[in-house]
Design goal:
The protein is α+β, with helices and mostly antiparallel strands. The protein has a single domain, classed as Gyrase A, domain 2 (2-Layer Sandwich), CATH 3.30.1360. The chain contains four helices and nine strands. Strand 7 and strand 8 form a beta hairpin. The chain is globular, with a radius of gyration of 16 Å. The termini are far apart. The relative contact order is 0.19.
Amino acid sequence: MVYTGCPSEERQGIIKTITSMIKHYLVAIVLSAGVGLGCQSIGKKKPGENYSLIALYIEQNNDGTKYSKKMAVYRADPIIFYVNSEPFLDTADLEQATLMEAIGGFAIQLQFNRHGTAVLDSFTTSNKGRRMAIFCQFTEPRVLAAPMITNRNATGIIRFTPDCSREEAERIIKGLASAIKEIKGKNK
């Protein structure tokens, strides 16, 4: 393989995903706070607090264009599928993220704000039978879950068992709480 100085398609996909996740207020938050994605915070934050970012993508057929990209979920036994390259919900739409006890382990619950609830309702109504990829950037970018949409979700709450350890889930929740707090602070 000859190095051409250009990043690989996979790397470009990851870069594009991370970039699209930082839309709306997160660009201002990350830049003004002086932090990098998954890096230790600087400034007003306590040492060790990290930001986590989340984005939800909808499954689609691979149309061979820049509008579809490959994702994989479940690291132990990967399931490969294609999603629309733009997320339909992200961290700016979150109201709260919680780590919950579940039968045989734990789950993550995401509660969306009014806008996020309306978007989730619309997407789950019109995309039954498709997967919803829940992508997270914490210390590494990866798909935490890809639940099948079986019915309409008008509650604005998604609960899923993530493909991560409890320690990683705790870090994700703490990082999401920090991001949500910053977003709410900037909206006042």
